Amino acid sequence: MRPIDQNLIDKHNETLRPQLQSDYTHLGEQLARRGIAIERVREQVAAFGVAIPSWGVGTGGTRFARFPGPGEPRHVFDKLQDCAVIHQLGRATPTVSLHIPWDKCSDWRELREAAAGYGLAFDAMNSNTFSDQPGQPQSYKFGSLTHTDAATRAQAVAHNLECIEIGQALGSTALTVWIGDGSNFPGQQHFRRAFERYLESTRQIYAALPSGWRMFLEHKICEPAFYSTVIQDWGSSYLAASALGPKAQCLVDLGHHAPNVNIELIVARLIASAKLAGFHFNDSKYGDDDLDAGSVSPYRLFLVFNELVAAAHEGVVGFHPAYMLDQSHNVTDPIESLIDSAEQVQRTYAQALLVDRAALDAAQQANDALAATRLLKRAFQTDVTPILQQVRLQAGAALEPIAAYRASGYRARMAAERPLRGGGGGGIV
Ligand code: LRH
Ligand code: MN
Predict the structure, then answer these.
(1) In this predicted model, what pLDDT tens digit does every residue of 79-127 receive, in sequence order?
(2) How far apart are CA 147 and CA 254, in angstroms?
(3) Residue 107 CB: number of other CB atoms within 10 A?
(4) Closest ligand 1 atom to the C-alpha of 290?
(5) Model-level pTM greater than 0.90?
(6) How far, in Å, from the CA of 284 to the mean position of ligand 1?
(7) Exposure check for the chain: N or C terminus, fewer CB within 10 A?
(8) 103 in ligand 1 pocket by Cβ < 6 Å?
(9) CA 411, 412, 418: angle at the middle one, nearest 5?
(10) Which residue has the CA at smallest separation from atom 11 of ligand 1?
(11) For residue 277, what are the CA distances in angstroms to 21, 176, 223, 228, 309?
């Protein structure tokens, strides 16, 4: 099932194919002079994918307001169709990461079949114990997995076990656990006891992991708590993941660090200890802004991918990172932002593949700082667009996916099919 008329995409590509052929040949010659086989890079890029956050296909908001656009998805099946549009046009997003209960539905088999019909699969499941659901016995106002009240912790653990069950029905093999637990006042929380309660709760979730499953612990410096957060940084996450066991690893959301923190160094540390779960890619200028990946600091994203490609190149043991986007689209068409962000992440991966690793090793060994950093810059400053387009062409996707999306009239069609939803209230979804 293809939500966009494939003929439209094929016609679109026909007009652009000749230009691509000469651009691809030219880039191939340039890279060959640098000892790089363009076809090898194309193969690696073709095998690369990043998951779409189901909560990202609807218009996002802030605590002040949310301004929904036309044709907002009404339920998880609408979200899945929008994810299918993103994958049909860009062919870089073969999986979807669901959030429970936002994506709850009555028939998981039906959802799994619908996804399969679109050629989509399910990535890590996300639990939600950072907001209260109608009729929920225990409130998470003062925490969830680390709440001082045992019944509230048990409720939060039960919710995570339910997310695993749903994930099993959908073919997912991972659970991401992000909690907002923390404090707003000095003295409000006993830091060591709260961490002990976190371990007590997550051990129960860990024990319930089916074989082949992983548990991703997501750290975050602040928000919704603004004095302390139980899993505030990679150190707390690493301590917890180490205490839990090999199936527990640390997920790096790029927006969850203090400004100017060297995230690529954190990534290198987690890789070295086989504790890198993967990523929530986005960008930010101040806080957890959830802006489009690579839209503010593309070189920062590149330096993270440089560490990832180096680890794969060196065959580091236990290196299986999961790649996911986690963004909030407040002022753009979410489908366009997700197509663009997926391409940006794919582009950054392709650029990192162009780093001359042997020359870099030699420059680092020789403490030739300038030569070393210029080798990274050279890769980053290479326009790999022809490689990305060649990958899309060979996958039946659109050479210019945003242009093809706009030409498809999909958003207008959805505006007609899906009644406008009220806006006004705050919140990210
Ligand atoms: C927390 C977070 C987490 C999700 C939520 C939507 O800020 O990054 O990954 O559960 O956003
Ligand atoms: Mn996240």
Answers:
(1) 999 999 999 999 999 999 999 999 999 999 999 999 999 999 999 999 9
(2) 27
(3) 10
(4) 8
(5) yes
(6) 14
(7) N
(8) no
(9) 80
(10) 326
(11) 38, 9, 22, 23, 15
